Amino acid sequence: MGKKNIEFDHSLEDREKLFSFRDLINGNVLTKKAVLRQSRFILLLVLIAFISIANRNHAEKTVIRLNSLQGDVKELRAKSITISSDLVRVSRQSEVVRLVESYGLGLEENLEPPKKLKDTH
Description:
By secondary structure, the chain is mostly helical.
């Protein structure tokens, strides 16, 4: 009975070095010395992961807003072209004469070319 089976005997130090799936599920892996020594590094990795996730969300929101604004620009450009063409149509001399007659303003079209006035002083 004095014999020990050395093959299956793990001292306390050996058990600290081994990580098993069972320890991971139980949470015992977090109390091991190796993990406690690396806690600052682990916290740095977690912080970098959070910053990365936040940066990705911000970039996605920016892209969505950019696409929305590009759609608005296309719509406003089309509206601007429509308004500009309407303005060109309405400002034609024949259209102005027709509008003056339809509103009954009593104005007449000048058929003589304009004359240049000279100051004789």
